[in-house]
Design goal:
Oligomer: single chain
Radius of gyration: 25 Å
CATH architecture of the largest domain: 3-Layer(aba) Sandwich
Order of helices and strands: EHEEEHEHEHEHHEHHEEHHHHEHHEEHHE
Number of domains: 2
Number of strands: 14
Largest sheet: 7 strands, mixed
Structural class: alpha/beta
Number of helices: 16
Length: about 425
């Protein structure tokens, strides 16, 4: 093991995205992550395809599952059985972190709730991720990313305005409420680990998708709290900065992000409309926001006359922030993305390689190592249980009872 979290052990009973995203980051940072999955089925996202990567031994690994489970060990345990519950408790004794995203109270019947695990390991940091939190009027409701984007206000500010073609609320193209909750979980767990070093105590972390979505409304949330008016949908435009949106050229669109008055001056010079610099309607950002529609119409009457490549080159030369609107294919072919090693190759257990998206963090002393690909279901069950003190005969008995899957065994996956 290497990385800044080398020596930290995480027991991961989470599924789908928010929890697995958090534990993948912890694994990237060097923690040992033991992913507990249902025998013969596994994490739901194993079946969320196509597309699938088909391994040499004919296992199907969905792209969705591959995106969020590298660096982990897969242990297939039926937690509804007393024997399975005993396995989880035994593993918990040696772990620093326990993370789960069952519904509120969902692990209590199995004796795997915080109080039960704390009784086994009082130093454990136990993180529960739910849709709406452990209390409150919505606590028993299931939380899904799209619902949270809607209820948490994100969809009300995403999409074209009502008077534009294609108007209506839009969901973001990836499950951002889940992903941000996963990132908050990482920071909360690291903070709790730091506290434990100094205070010697574990603790419980209650994390909700809805709370997270409200928290990262950021400037849009404060726009409402300051003005009393709910922000609306503005397409690609910025609510507080102009011009800051997609701009139409003769052959399509590019993204423009003028962040201050000096950049606006340079932009006006590039498009040959220097008179706009001293125009009282546009001289300051405040005025540009107030006269947004007029300014954008003037700008696009010019930019529509030349292709995107022309404008991107001219604006880049004078350091006005702009960029192409890349497809995902174009992203992975981008020289900056390649140079920064955001595309990684990692070995699967059957000695074949698969591409994955790299972690964006660059540590100077403890660089991230991509040690282990997302696992085949039950890939590590036998190895992990042997490490926990189970004998070969006991493991085989558990396999025969259906309590565990052992990959590659007679009754394995």
């Amino acid at each position: 093991m290497s990385g800044p979290l080398a020596g930290i052990k995480v027991l991961d009973l989470s599924r789908i995205l928010a929890g697995p995203w958090a534990t993948q980051v912890l694994a990237d940072y060097g923690a040992e992550v033991i992913k507990i999955e249902r025998p013969n089925a596994g994490d739901d996202t194993r079946h969320w395809g196509p597309p699938y990567h088909i391994t040499r031994s004919k296992e199907e690994l969905s792209a969705y599952f591959l995106s969020t489970n590298r660096g982990k060990q897969s242990v297939a345990v039926d937690i509804s059985t007393p024997e399975g519950q005993a396995i989880i408790k035994k593993l918990s004794r040696e772990c620093d972190v326990f993370i789960e995203n069952f519904k509120v109270g969902g692990l209590e019947p199995y004796g795997l709730d915080y109080n039960s695990i704390k009784g086994v390991n009082p130093h454990i940091i136990y993180c529960s991720i739910t849709g709406f939190g452990q209390d409150g009027p919505y606590a028993q409701k299931a939380g899904y990313d799209a619902i949270i984007q809607a209820m948490g206000g994100l969809m009300s500010i995403t999409g074209e305005p009502d008077d534009q073609l294609g108007a209506g609320p839009q969901k973001v193209g990836v499950a951002v409420s889940d992903l941000m909750t996963g990132m908050y979980a990482v920071s909360a767990i690291l903070a709790a680990l730091y506290y434990r070093v100094h205070g010697g105590e574990g603790q419980y972390i209650d994390l909700a998708l809805m709370d997270t979505q409200v928290a990262w409304l950021a400037n849009q949330g404060m726009n409402f709290l300051v003005s009393g008016e709910s922000p609306g949908r503005q397409g690609t435009a910025h609510p507080n900065i102009v011009p800051y949106q997609t701009i139409e050229a003769s052959d399509g669109y590019f993204m423009l992000a003028v962040g201050n008055d000096r950049q606006f001056e340079h932009f006006c010079q590039v498009i040959g409309r220097s008179e706009l610099i001293q125009d009282d309607r546009f001289r300051t950002n405040r005025n540009r926001v107030n006269n947004r529609e007029l300014l954008i119409s003037i700008i696009q009457s010019v930019t529509q006359q030349k292709p995107r490549a022309y404008w991107l080159k001219q604006l880049d030369d004078v350091k006005v922030p702009c960029g192409p609107i890349n497809s995902i294919k174009e992203v992975f072919n981008d020289p900056q993305v390649k140079f920064r090693s955001m595309l990684q190759s990692i070995k699967l257990s059957m000695n074949e390689t698969i591409n994955c998206v790299g972690n964006p963090v660059k540590f100077s002393k403890t660089p991230i190592e991509y040690r282990k690909a997302p696992p085949v279901l039950a890939e590590d069950t036998i190895q992990v249980l042997k490490g926990a003190g189970y004998s070969e005969s006991t493991i085989q008995d558990l396999i025969k009872l259906g309590v565990i899957n052992g990959y590659g065994s007679e009754n394995g996956d």
